[in-house]
Design a protein that fits this description.
This protein is α/β, with parallel strands linked by helices. The chain contains ten helices and ten strands. The strands form two sheets. It has an eight-stranded mixed sheet. β7, α8 and β8 form a beta-alpha-beta unit. The longest helix has 14 residues.
Length: 281
């Protein structure tokens, strides 16, 4: 924490790209995206939060890096064409899914239900082939299974509220298969979800549940949590790192493996985590 926050961090304000714009035009991973967002919803008094209503600065930068075939995750086959990725707190933009879904087998974006309408719009407006988002609520009480998507329908949405929902049953909802290996979640992504101390415990618990809920053999690679965040408050960051480190072994991705836009002078950081209980299997 001291090393990260002892640097001269650039002023990012709260970290929005443009909180007043209703439409953003972005180029990510060689693609031109038109993203509709909702400044009105952002400034509303909706109970349960509104931060997912607009695009945050780190999101397009992180999407550009993680979708690149030259990054360390692709280079070491941690992510490949057979991967299943679950994103936490996807917001309305769908940017990470749009960048990564063409390169993996299955991408599941999750968030509270209020983002669904705009997320659906942004996916349909920006994906090369029409995709219908299949919404399933991942609760233990409903043993629903999502239909296995094909190549053109591998980007899906599930409602998941960290504070009220359990993620333990989510792996079995992803793919309609009796083979345990098909239920494996390879990567859990969270981008700029750490800004409030009250959300730290639910976020860490959800990450742990997604890893524990996977029926994995000791010989298989454990689920990797990839956490990207803007460095705002040293107290919030340290509280997250302390809580996350209790459940996960944690590494910060070094500058040499990041893009210039995400290195230590950018005010952003990317960490990887492996569940401690899974690591010991």
């Amino acid at each position: 924490t001291f090393l990260l926050f002892s640097q001269s961090l650039p002023s990012q304000d709260l970290g929005f790209v443009d909180p007043k714009a209703t439409v953003l035009h972005l180029e990510i991973a060689g693609r031109d995206l038109t993203i509709t967002q909702s400044p009105t919803l952002l400034s509303s008094n909706r109970e349960g939060g509104t931060t997912g209503a607009v695009v945050w600065k780190i999101t397009p930068l992180f999407a550009e890096w993680i979708a690149s075939s030259t990054n360390c995750l692709f280079q070491n086959s941690i992510i490949d064409s057979s991967s299943t990725i679950v994103e936490l707190g996807c917001g309305i933009s769908g940017i990470l899914g749009l960048a990564l879904a063409p390169r993996v087998a299955n991408y599941v974006a999750t968030d509270q239900r209020y983002v669904e309408k705009l997320l659906n719009l942004n996916i349909h407006c920006n994906i090369s082939q029409s995709i219908g988002l299949r919404e399933r609520k991942p609760t233990i009480n409903h043993h629903q299974k999502a239909t296995k998507p094909g190549r053109s329908t591998n980007l899906n949405f599930l409602t998941l509220d960290w504070e009220t929902d359990s993620a333990l049953s989510l792996p079995s909802l992803l793919i309609d298969s009796k083979r345990p290996e098909d239920h494996t979640i390879n990567i859990v992504l969270a981008c700029d979800c750490i800004y409030n101390e009250t959300l730290i415990a639910p976020l860490v618990r959800t990450c742990a549940e997604l890893c524990q809920g996977v029926e994995a053999k000791p010989s298989k690679m454990p689920t990797i949590c990839v956490i990207a965040q803007q460095l705002r408050s040293p107290d919030v960051f340290e509280a997250w790192l302390t809580s996350f480190s209790e459940v996960f072994r944690v590494w910060r991705v070094p500058d040499s493996l990041l893009s210039d836009e995400l290195n230590k002078d950018s005010g952003f950081a990317v960490h990887l985590g492996i569940n401690r209980s899974r690591e010991m299997q």
